[in-house]
């Protein structure tokens, strides 16, 4: 069992704790929150764990091996740094960082702490249905392109319209469509098709200066991939991968509940296999596997590919963000 | 009744003749085809009309007032010119021309023949459901953008893959996704949102050198519009217009059979009214109205707006095509 602690007391932390329990690979030993009362309330809610409101004490707590970070993204970098310096594995909710400079600093720290593993926890990529998509894609003799859609009508936008500055919708919180939702279809595209040779971003800014709605165009040698992303409106468009006379149609690129392969005979083959009731189960299992088998070459290869993918995604995200002139306080 | 003749003997010509009959505004008097036998066979099929295989004789035929042109697009320009010079109104199947130079030449000819009217027959814009979309859009207090999809898996692409050069899929025929299908969502966007301040096109070329699949980004002052177009694969994506917490969802931007307005309360209001069994009925009625009421200021205004829209669309089409370096033999 991997003894882990959590930073953050929100819904996703709850979900990860549940998934970790389901996976039988993780044991929650400590929870951290800025406020001691919040920490204790969360610890009470999650039985058998100790509450901390001092980060150092939390990181030095008895037998702690790994931390799951689901705080506000603007705080991730400092918390990741502190965790790595304390030689704890880090699992962090996307976006792990706000720019590639932070990512490079983390990689430098990892080089100095070779026993530590660092994971950006992109749950859709660890879903069985994602593997289904990848496996079906591999059988397609020709790929003509893809359109991935991640658009959400988030309540934060109403707050923005009311003159407020909600987390995720401001420059100060390193928010915006690219960071909050765009990262997921970008991960999917880079995982399935590799690093694009060129990326372009067309976005509409909201009052706070961040991107509210946009389209990303990724150019590959033989085809193009378009990503529709947004935090100010939703969409009924599915995500699609185009073959020759065949298509993979995905209801939702981040939840992957319904995957259909329309084959060359226009027959519809439902690709669903397992859908975990808790959507983070796949990631709890996969990351757990790496941490339980640190000397297994297969798991090492897996881990290296995830780290490379995270590096590529954050480099691309920053490039796209720079194209539309959005600067975060964390950018140097 | 407007006495008209047809150039072309294909499916769309049949459809227009049927629509013209339904509208009770048109009387077919002459049909033209390059081959005398084809012309006669088509004339026999459409009762009460005379067959011609010489364009001049056809254009001078008894009482002819207007011509409907549905030949191969590469031949439109010459046929339009000849018709205008013979003082016949022209209704032409899109794309009317292959570039803005041809369009400007037609406008010059129209100036020299002030009694002649020229129509690019963009049937979706004359459908009652299109007016429904426009009217609903006008009630939306905020517009965040739109995505229009016109992607078709056309049999011509298989011929291309087999080494052939089918019409519509070659540079010689002024083909490609922009010309064959892209024009329709572009018309819809410019009709609903006006002329964009900037347009960009990302396309994948097929073996013949034309664009097979692509995405167009149209930038407006306050929002962006994305068009997905293609002649090598289809798509299940609907077309959508994004308001604030509301959306108009269109099953198909060229056929407009199912229009839904998802309002701010997330209630779905079906916007369908009349759908003509023959999809060209609306255009036969609307164009017929203009030609029957040449001195009516309202109809004159209508006509002028259509001509302006056609000019804008062909200017934009050419700009987008130039961006991806596609040159037609007709480009100077």
From TrEMBL, chains A, B:
SUPFAM superfamilies: Glyceraldehyde-3-phosphate dehydrogenase-like, C-terminal domain (SSF55347), NAD(P)-binding Rossmann-fold domains (SSF51735). One of its GO terms (molecular function) is nucleotide binding. Residues 2-113 form the Gfo/Idh/MocA-like oxidoreductase N-terminal domain. Pfam families: GFO_IDH_MocA (PF01408). PANTHER family: PTHR43054, SCYLLO-INOSITOL 2-DEHYDROGENASE (NADP(+)) IOLU. This is Gfo/Idh/MocA family oxidoreductase. It comes from Lacticaseibacillus paracasei (Lactobacillus paracasei).
């Amino acid at each position: 069992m991997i003894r882990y602690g959590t930073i953050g007391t929100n819904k996703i932390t709850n979900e990860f704790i549940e998934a970790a329990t389901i996976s039988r690979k993780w044991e929650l030993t400590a929870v951290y929150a800025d406020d001691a009362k919040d920490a204790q309330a969360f610890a009470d809610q999650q039985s058998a764990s100790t509450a901390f409101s001092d980060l150092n004490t939390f990181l030095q707590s008895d037998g702690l091996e790994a931390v799951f970070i689901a705080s506000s993204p603007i705080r991730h970098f400092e918390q990741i740094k502190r965790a790595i310096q304390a030689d704890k594995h880090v699992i962090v909710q996307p976006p792990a960082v706000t720019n590639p400079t932070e990512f490079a600093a983390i990689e430098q720290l990892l080089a100095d702490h070779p026993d530590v593993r660092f994971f950006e926890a992109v749950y859709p990529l660890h879903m069985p249905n994602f593997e289904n998509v990848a496996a079906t894609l591999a059988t397609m003799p020709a790929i003509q392109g893809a359109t991935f859609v991640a658009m959400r009508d988030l309540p934060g936008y109403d707050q923005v319209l009311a003159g407020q500055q909600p987390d995720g919708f401001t420059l100060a919180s390193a928010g915006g469509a690219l960071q909050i939702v765009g990262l997921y279809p970008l991960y999917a595209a880079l995982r399935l098709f590799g690093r694009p040779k060129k990326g372009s971003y067309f976005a509409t800014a909201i009052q706070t200066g961040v991107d509210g709605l946009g389209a990303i165009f990724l150019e590959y040698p033989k085809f193009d991939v378009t990503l529709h992303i947004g935090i100010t409106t939703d969409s009924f468009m599915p995500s699609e991968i185009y073959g020759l006379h065949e298509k993979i149609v995905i209801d939702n690129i981040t939840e992957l509940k319904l995957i259909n392969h329309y084959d060359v005979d226009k027959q519809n083959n439902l690709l669903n296999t397992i859908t975990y009731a808790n959507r983070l189960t796949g990631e709890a299992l996969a990351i757990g596997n790496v941490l339980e088998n640190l000397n297994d070459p297969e798991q090492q290869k897996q881990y290296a590919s995830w780290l490379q993918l995270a590096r590529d995604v954050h480099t691309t995200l920053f490039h796209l963000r720079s194209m539309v002139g959005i600067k975060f306080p964390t950018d140097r």
